[in-house]
Amino acid sequence: MNVDPRSVRVVTEKDYRDAIRSRALLLLGTVFVVFFAAAAFFFADQFQQFLDNAAASNNTTQRQAARMARERLTSNAFLSSLTTITRLLVPLTAIVVSYSAVVGERESGTLKLLLSLPHSRASTVLGKFLGRSAVVTVPVLLGFLVAVPVFPLAGVPFKPLGFAGFALATALLGVVFVAISVGTSAAAPTSRRAVVVIVGLYALFTLLWGQFSSAVFRQLSDLLDLSRVASIELFLLVRHLNPVRTYESLVASVGPSGELAARTSLIGGFNGQIAAQILRQSGGLPVYLTDVALVVYLLLWVVVPLGLGLLAFERLDL
């Protein structure tokens, strides 16, 4: 497997330039910037209205509630409200940008020309991945950057470390789905096959993972004789095999509740509170469920699909 850094750079630059020439992708980038800015303005406006109404009220209880809310309604609260949208929008954007990165050029015949320049197959796939990753992450990070000034201007307490962590985790989620899409595009014989596989994975990760992971957990529980604590840890580990769930759990740590509450939030409701209490009494989270471990899982979701796609691409007869 021959990877030439200069060749990778050339392919990356070409792929990025070709991608940003597309009006659809420029529109997509604009949507991200406008969305994050508008969401920040809306949050700040609602925050200010709440404080104004509380200040104008003669109700002592309402004023005390407003003081407590002012302490809690920081930029972290804004980020928590975004998670439901970013977990769906960012992966979908990465898929749209990347699903035809390799197989599209193979079907059009331009891939043979690209490989004859000469660029190795490994350099081509890696360059495609880096180029499409830039197309996805630049608008995402720019959108977050545009939203930053809104908070101090509106008087909303701004937490820079939490904001930066959320932005980087969201960008990494985009890179994960670029890797999945480019890897699938490299391995698939046709664009239609690539779309079917990628959309199927997107549906599994965003819609069906609860049922799927519960079924896997039940099968493993039947095979293993686990204690109550080990059973909870296994359930959480299976839930976190999904990159979207891993992202949700990771960014939930931005809030004041911390790692333990963020992990058990994937269980939900009263059962999640019981699980958190049991784990707390047993000594807390295992190493493989910490924030650092979750970042490693996301990085593995970049490396493994891309590597498998490249191995399949190396064996394809073009």
What does this structure look like?
- The mean pLDDT is about 85.
- This protein folds into two domains: about 5-205 and about 305-315, no CATH class; about 210-295, no CATH class.
- The protein has about 325 residues and is mainly alpha-helical.
- Helix 1 crosses helix 7 (about 120-145), helix 7 packs antiparallel against helix 15 and helix 10 (about 190-225) runs antiparallel to helix 11 (about 230-240).
- It is built from 15 helices and no strands.
- The radius of gyration is 22 Å and the shape is flat.
- This is ABC transporter permease.
Secondary-structure map with pairings?
Blueprint: H1 5-20, H2 23-56, H3 60-72, H4 75-98, H5 103-108, H6 110-115, H7 121-147, H8 150-154, H9 160-187, H10 191-223, H11 228-239, H12 243-252, H13 258-264, H14 269-281, H15 291-315
Helix pairs in contact: 1-7, 2-3, 2-4, 2-7, 4-7, 4-9, 4-10, 4-12, 7-9, 7-15, 9-10, 9-12, 9-15, 10-11, 12-13, 12-15, 13-14
